[in-house]
Amino acid sequence: MVRGKKSNASLRRDPSWKYSVQVDIGGAEKTYVYLKCNFCDKVVKGGVTRMKEHLSGSHKNVAPCANVPDKVKEEICAYMKKSITAKHLQQEQFDDRVEQGSYYGSESGKGSSSTIHSRGARGPMDQYMVNPGEDRGQTQMSILDVRQPLEAMFTSTQWLNSAWGKKPEGKEVRRHILNDKFWATVTYAILSTRPLVQVLRLVDAEKKPAMGFIYNAMDEAKELIAHNLGGEEASYREIWDIIDARWEVQLHRHLHAAAYYLNPQFQYSERKSSNPEVKLGLYHCMERLIPDLTVREIADLQLVLFRNREGFFGLHAAKSTIVKRSPVE
Protein backbone atom coordinates (compact mmCIF):
# COMPACT_ATOMS: atom_id res chain seq x y z
CA MET A 1 0.00 0.00 0.00
CA VAL A 2 1.15 3.53 -0.74
CA ARG A 3 0.41 4.56 2.82
CA GLY A 4 2.88 1.97 4.13
CA LYS A 5 5.63 3.19 1.82
CA LYS A 6 5.20 6.73 3.03
CA SER A 7 5.41 5.55 6.61
CA ASN A 8 8.68 3.70 5.95
CA ALA A 9 10.17 6.71 4.20
CA SER A 10 9.25 8.84 7.18
CA LEU A 11 10.90 6.41 9.59
CA ARG A 12 14.13 6.41 7.58
CA ARG A 13 14.55 10.09 8.45
CA ASP A 14 15.10 9.08 12.06
CA PRO A 15 18.81 9.66 12.95
CA SER A 16 19.01 6.18 14.48
CA TRP A 17 19.25 4.75 10.98
CA LYS A 18 22.59 6.51 10.48
CA TYR A 19 24.12 4.61 13.38
CA SER A 20 22.55 1.17 12.93
CA VAL A 21 21.69 -1.41 10.30
CA GLN A 22 18.66 -3.65 9.97
CA VAL A 23 19.44 -7.36 10.28
CA ASP A 24 17.52 -10.59 9.85
CA ILE A 25 17.52 -12.96 12.80
CA GLY A 26 16.78 -16.59 12.03
CA GLY A 27 13.79 -17.93 13.95
CA ALA A 28 12.98 -14.50 15.38
CA GLU A 29 9.49 -12.98 15.45
CA LYS A 30 8.76 -11.45 12.05
CA THR A 31 6.62 -8.70 13.55
CA TYR A 32 9.68 -7.00 15.04
CA VAL A 33 12.41 -4.96 13.35
CA TYR A 34 15.94 -5.87 14.51
CA LEU A 35 18.69 -3.24 14.35
CA LYS A 36 22.40 -3.72 15.04
CA CYS A 37 24.29 -0.84 16.63
CA ASN A 38 27.28 0.37 14.58
CA PHE A 39 29.26 1.16 17.73
CA CYS A 40 28.88 -1.98 19.87
CA ASP A 41 27.28 -4.50 17.46
CA LYS A 42 24.41 -5.07 19.91
CA VAL A 43 21.22 -6.26 18.19
CA VAL A 44 18.16 -4.42 19.46
CA LYS A 45 14.63 -5.71 19.03
CA GLY A 46 11.97 -3.03 18.55
CA GLY A 47 13.18 -0.83 15.72
CA VAL A 48 14.31 2.78 15.88
CA THR A 49 12.51 3.51 19.14
CA ARG A 50 14.58 0.99 21.05
CA MET A 51 17.73 2.00 19.12
CA LYS A 52 17.28 5.63 20.19
CA GLU A 53 16.97 4.49 23.80
CA HIS A 54 20.11 2.40 23.34
CA LEU A 55 22.14 5.25 21.84
CA SER A 56 20.86 7.92 24.24
CA GLY A 57 21.56 5.81 27.31
CA SER A 58 18.08 6.30 28.72
CA HIS A 59 18.14 2.91 30.52
CA LYS A 60 14.40 2.73 29.73
CA ASN A 61 13.82 -0.50 27.81
CA VAL A 62 17.26 -1.50 26.61
CA ALA A 63 20.83 -1.43 27.87
CA PRO A 64 22.80 1.70 26.86
CA CYS A 65 25.62 1.65 24.33
CA ALA A 66 29.02 1.88 25.98
CA ASN A 67 30.83 2.99 22.81
CA VAL A 68 28.52 5.70 21.45
CA PRO A 69 30.36 9.02 20.85
CA ASP A 70 29.17 11.96 22.94
CA LYS A 71 28.25 13.93 19.79
CA VAL A 72 25.98 11.12 18.56
CA LYS A 73 24.44 10.73 22.01
CA GLU A 74 23.65 14.46 22.13
CA GLU A 75 22.13 14.31 18.64
CA ILE A 76 19.85 11.41 19.58
CA CYS A 77 18.84 13.03 22.88
CA ALA A 78 17.98 16.31 21.13
CA TYR A 79 15.90 14.46 18.53
CA MET A 80 14.01 12.53 21.23
CA LYS A 81 13.31 15.72 23.16
CA LYS A 82 12.02 17.41 20.02
CA SER A 83 9.76 14.45 19.25
CA ILE A 84 8.35 14.40 22.78
CA THR A 85 7.66 18.15 22.66
CA ALA A 86 5.93 17.88 19.28
CA LYS A 87 3.81 14.97 20.46
CA HIS A 88 2.84 16.81 23.64
CA LEU A 89 1.93 19.92 21.65
CA GLN A 90 -0.14 17.83 19.26
CA GLN A 91 -2.08 16.31 22.15
CA GLU A 92 -2.63 19.67 23.84
CA GLN A 93 -3.94 21.23 20.66
CA PHE A 94 -6.25 18.30 20.07
CA ASP A 95 -7.61 18.69 23.61
CA ASP A 96 -8.08 22.42 23.02
CA ARG A 97 -9.96 21.84 19.79
CA VAL A 98 -12.27 19.34 21.50
CA GLU A 99 -12.91 21.75 24.36
CA GLN A 100 -13.33 24.93 22.31
CA GLY A 101 -14.79 23.58 19.07
CA SER A 102 -13.80 26.57 16.96
CA TYR A 103 -10.06 26.42 17.71
CA TYR A 104 -7.68 26.88 14.79
CA GLY A 105 -4.35 25.12 15.12
CA SER A 106 -0.89 25.93 13.86
CA GLU A 107 0.76 24.47 10.79
CA SER A 108 1.91 20.88 10.58
CA GLY A 109 4.86 19.67 8.57
CA LYS A 110 4.43 18.19 5.11
CA GLY A 111 3.91 14.48 5.07
CA SER A 112 3.16 14.43 8.78
CA SER A 113 0.33 12.37 10.15
CA SER A 114 -0.17 14.96 12.86
CA THR A 115 -3.63 16.10 13.81
CA ILE A 116 -2.41 19.69 14.00
CA HIS A 117 -4.16 21.43 11.14
CA SER A 118 -2.92 24.39 9.15
CA ARG A 119 -4.08 27.78 10.34
CA GLY A 120 -7.59 28.42 9.15
CA ALA A 121 -8.38 24.73 8.82
CA ARG A 122 -11.36 23.46 10.77
CA GLY A 123 -10.70 21.64 14.04
CA PRO A 124 -12.16 18.19 14.74
CA MET A 125 -15.20 19.61 16.55
CA ASP A 126 -15.90 22.47 14.11
CA GLN A 127 -17.92 20.23 11.82
CA TYR A 128 -20.40 19.71 14.64
CA MET A 129 -20.83 23.41 15.43
CA VAL A 130 -23.30 25.88 13.97
CA ASN A 131 -22.44 29.56 13.88
CA PRO A 132 -25.77 31.33 14.44
CA GLY A 133 -24.45 34.48 12.84
CA GLU A 134 -23.44 32.76 9.60
CA ASP A 135 -26.24 30.20 9.37
CA ARG A 136 -29.19 32.29 10.46
CA GLY A 137 -31.95 31.87 7.91
CA GLN A 138 -30.46 28.70 6.50
CA THR A 139 -31.57 25.14 7.16
CA GLN A 140 -30.18 24.26 10.55
CA MET A 141 -28.01 21.19 10.85
CA SER A 142 -29.50 18.36 12.87
CA ILE A 143 -27.38 16.37 15.28
CA LEU A 144 -28.55 13.34 13.32
CA ASP A 145 -26.61 14.67 10.33
CA VAL A 146 -23.36 14.26 12.25
CA ARG A 147 -24.05 10.95 13.95
CA GLN A 148 -21.42 9.05 11.97
CA PRO A 149 -18.68 11.70 12.39
CA LEU A 150 -19.43 11.86 16.11
CA GLU A 151 -19.25 8.10 16.49
CA ALA A 152 -16.02 8.08 14.49
CA MET A 153 -14.49 10.77 16.68
CA PHE A 154 -15.45 9.11 19.97
CA THR A 155 -13.98 5.78 18.84
CA SER A 156 -10.77 7.32 17.50
CA THR A 157 -7.45 6.80 19.25
CA GLN A 158 -7.05 10.58 19.39
CA TRP A 159 -10.13 10.90 21.59
CA LEU A 160 -9.36 7.84 23.70
CA ASN A 161 -5.82 9.09 24.36
CA SER A 162 -6.85 12.70 24.96
CA ALA A 163 -7.26 14.25 28.39
CA TRP A 164 -10.99 14.70 27.80
CA GLY A 165 -11.39 11.09 26.72
CA LYS A 166 -10.01 9.93 30.05
CA LYS A 167 -12.23 12.15 32.21
CA PRO A 168 -15.50 10.77 33.68
CA GLU A 169 -17.46 13.42 31.77
CA GLY A 170 -15.82 12.44 28.50
CA LYS A 171 -16.49 8.76 29.10
CA GLU A 172 -20.12 9.52 29.91
CA VAL A 173 -20.59 11.50 26.70
CA ARG A 174 -18.93 8.72 24.72
CA ARG A 175 -21.26 6.16 26.28
CA HIS A 176 -24.30 8.14 25.13
CA ILE A 177 -22.97 8.78 21.63
CA LEU A 178 -22.34 5.07 21.07
CA ASN A 179 -25.74 4.04 22.46
CA ASP A 180 -28.45 3.31 19.86
CA LYS A 181 -31.16 4.14 22.39
CA PHE A 182 -29.77 7.66 22.66
CA TRP A 183 -30.12 8.18 18.91
CA ALA A 184 -33.66 6.78 18.99
CA THR A 185 -34.64 9.44 21.52
CA VAL A 186 -32.87 12.11 19.46
CA THR A 187 -34.83 11.06 16.39
CA TYR A 188 -38.09 11.16 18.32
CA ALA A 189 -37.30 14.57 19.78
CA ILE A 190 -36.43 16.06 16.40
CA LEU A 191 -39.46 14.63 14.60
CA SER A 192 -41.79 15.85 17.33
CA THR A 193 -40.34 19.30 17.99
CA ARG A 194 -39.06 20.55 14.63
CA PRO A 195 -42.58 21.54 13.42
CA LEU A 196 -43.07 23.53 16.63
CA VAL A 197 -39.76 25.31 16.09
CA GLN A 198 -41.07 26.40 12.68
CA VAL A 199 -44.11 27.93 14.41
CA LEU A 200 -41.85 29.83 16.80
CA ARG A 201 -39.82 31.14 13.88
CA LEU A 202 -43.03 32.34 12.27
CA VAL A 203 -44.01 34.17 15.45
CA ASP A 204 -40.59 35.86 15.62
CA ALA A 205 -40.37 36.60 11.90
CA GLU A 206 -40.29 40.20 10.74
CA LYS A 207 -41.19 39.54 7.09
CA LYS A 208 -44.71 38.20 7.71
CA PRO A 209 -47.12 39.31 10.49
CA ALA A 210 -47.82 36.20 12.52
CA MET A 211 -51.36 36.96 13.69
CA GLY A 212 -53.05 35.86 10.47
CA PHE A 213 -50.99 32.68 10.20
CA ILE A 214 -50.31 31.28 13.66
CA TYR A 215 -53.61 29.39 14.00
CA ASN A 216 -53.05 27.54 10.73
CA ALA A 217 -49.34 27.05 11.49
CA MET A 218 -50.15 25.33 14.78
CA ASP A 219 -52.70 23.06 13.11
CA GLU A 220 -50.21 22.12 10.40
CA ALA A 221 -47.51 21.53 13.01
CA LYS A 222 -49.70 18.99 14.79
CA GLU A 223 -50.50 17.21 11.55
CA LEU A 224 -46.83 17.12 10.59
CA ILE A 225 -45.87 15.69 13.99
CA ALA A 226 -48.44 12.94 13.53
CA HIS A 227 -47.08 12.21 10.06
CA ASN A 228 -43.46 12.21 11.27
CA LEU A 229 -44.29 9.68 13.97
CA GLY A 230 -45.93 7.25 11.57
CA GLY A 231 -49.54 8.38 11.82
CA GLU A 232 -50.30 6.05 14.73
CA GLU A 233 -52.32 7.91 17.36
CA ALA A 234 -50.57 6.09 20.17
CA SER A 235 -47.25 7.58 19.04
CA TYR A 236 -48.33 11.22 18.84
CA ARG A 237 -51.35 11.56 21.15
CA GLU A 238 -49.26 12.45 24.21
CA ILE A 239 -47.48 15.23 22.32
CA TRP A 240 -50.76 16.52 20.91
CA ASP A 241 -52.23 16.67 24.43
CA ILE A 242 -49.24 18.68 25.65
CA ILE A 243 -49.54 21.08 22.70
CA ASP A 244 -53.29 21.49 23.19
CA ALA A 245 -52.85 22.19 26.89
CA ARG A 246 -50.20 24.83 26.24
CA TRP A 247 -52.10 26.26 23.30
CA GLU A 248 -55.32 26.71 25.26
CA VAL A 249 -53.63 28.22 28.31
CA GLN A 250 -50.86 30.34 26.79
CA LEU A 251 -51.36 30.87 23.05
CA HIS A 252 -54.91 30.36 21.82
CA ARG A 253 -56.96 33.52 21.60
CA HIS A 254 -60.18 34.34 19.78
CA LEU A 255 -58.12 36.89 17.90
CA HIS A 256 -55.99 34.11 16.37
CA ALA A 257 -59.10 32.30 15.14
CA ALA A 258 -60.54 35.54 13.74
CA ALA A 259 -57.29 36.36 11.97
CA TYR A 260 -57.27 32.88 10.46
CA TYR A 261 -60.85 33.25 9.20
CA LEU A 262 -60.17 36.67 7.67
CA ASN A 263 -56.98 35.57 5.94
CA PRO A 264 -57.94 34.94 2.28
CA GLN A 265 -55.04 32.52 1.86
CA PHE A 266 -56.88 30.13 4.18
CA GLN A 267 -60.49 31.18 3.60
CA TYR A 268 -60.24 30.34 -0.09
CA SER A 269 -58.15 27.23 0.39
CA GLU A 270 -59.59 23.76 -0.13
CA ARG A 271 -57.97 22.77 3.16
CA LYS A 272 -59.52 25.51 5.29
CA SER A 273 -60.51 24.46 8.78
CA SER A 274 -64.17 23.69 9.43
CA ASN A 275 -63.67 23.74 13.19
CA PRO A 276 -66.56 25.70 14.81
CA GLU A 277 -64.08 27.46 17.12
CA VAL A 278 -62.80 29.46 14.15
CA LYS A 279 -66.09 31.20 13.43
CA LEU A 280 -66.87 31.39 17.13
CA GLY A 281 -63.60 33.22 17.70
CA LEU A 282 -64.48 35.64 14.91
CA TYR A 283 -67.85 36.53 16.42
CA HIS A 284 -66.38 36.91 19.89
CA CYS A 285 -63.96 39.47 18.45
CA MET A 286 -66.73 41.26 16.56
CA GLU A 287 -68.81 41.60 19.72
CA ARG A 288 -65.90 43.07 21.60
CA LEU A 289 -64.52 45.34 18.85
CA ILE A 290 -67.88 46.44 17.38
CA PRO A 291 -70.21 47.24 20.28
CA ASP A 292 -72.81 48.91 18.03
CA LEU A 293 -75.29 46.22 16.92
CA THR A 294 -76.21 47.97 13.65
CA VAL A 295 -72.59 48.30 12.56
CA ARG A 296 -71.92 44.71 13.59
CA GLU A 297 -74.80 43.51 11.38
CA ILE A 298 -73.34 45.41 8.41
CA ALA A 299 -69.97 43.80 9.05
CA ASP A 300 -71.63 40.39 9.25
CA LEU A 301 -73.25 40.92 5.85
CA GLN A 302 -69.88 41.91 4.41
CA LEU A 303 -68.51 38.62 5.69
CA VAL A 304 -70.86 36.87 3.27
CA LEU A 305 -69.30 38.82 0.37
CA PHE A 306 -65.84 37.94 1.63
CA ARG A 307 -66.64 34.24 2.04
CA ASN A 308 -68.23 34.00 -1.44
CA ARG A 309 -65.62 36.15 -3.19
CA GLU A 310 -68.18 38.72 -4.22
CA GLY A 311 -67.87 42.48 -4.70
CA PHE A 312 -64.33 43.76 -4.30
CA PHE A 313 -63.23 40.28 -3.20
CA GLY A 314 -64.16 38.89 -6.60
CA LEU A 315 -62.05 41.31 -8.64
CA HIS A 316 -59.07 39.89 -10.52
CA ALA A 317 -56.63 42.20 -8.71
CA ALA A 318 -57.80 40.87 -5.34
CA LYS A 319 -57.64 37.23 -6.43
CA SER A 320 -54.18 37.50 -7.99
CA THR A 321 -52.58 39.01 -4.88
CA ILE A 322 -54.03 36.68 -2.25
CA VAL A 323 -50.69 35.01 -1.53
CA LYS A 324 -48.57 38.06 -2.34
CA ARG A 325 -49.96 40.51 0.18
CA SER A 326 -50.48 40.45 3.89
CA PRO A 327 -54.15 40.11 4.94
CA VAL A 328 -53.92 43.48 6.71
CA GLU A 329 -52.87 45.36 3.56
Automatic annotation (TrEMBL):
Positions with biased composition (Low complexity): 101-114
InterPro entries attached to this UniProt entry: RNaseH-like_sf, Znf_BED
Source organism superkingdom: Eukaryota
BED-type domain boundaries: 11-72
Keyword rRNA processing included in the entry's annotation: no
Entry keywords, A to Z: Metal-binding, Zinc, Zinc-finger
Gene Ontology terms for molecular function: zinc ion binding
Signal peptide bounds: none
Annotated segments matching region Disordered: 101-125
Protein name: BED-type domain-containing protein
Organism name: Dendrobium thyrsiflorum
